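Supplementary notes for students who missed Thursday's class. We covered one full example, reproduced here. Read the sequence, then the structure, then the short commentary at the end.
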Amino acid sequence: MFTTGWGEPIHPDTVSSLFPILIKRHNAHHPKDPLPHARLHDLRHIHATTLLLAGVPVHVVAARLGHADPLNHSSGLCPRDPCSGSVGGGDLRPGDQRVSTPRC
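Structure (token representation):
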């Protein structure tokens, strides 16, 4: 949850709409190290994937994300090759291309 300086909640759509603007600003100031297009929700998937690649058990990751069922999203997040950093369900590439990959 995000809050204002006064502690009041910010509507989720406000934060989601600001996310691409933040990426665009970053890329304008750091052209040699650009970030790919991403949605705020993609950070949730990156977080879950990073935990799984670090060896955190699926049920712990599921609980952290608020899922009652550990198998709810695990098929889309299973690591294929920890060295490449790629995961089942596709990878985000610069230029906003989603590359389809087979599920585990």
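Commentary. The longest helix spans residues 12-29. Confidence is low (pLDDT under 50) at residues 77-104. If anything here is unclear, bring it to office hours.
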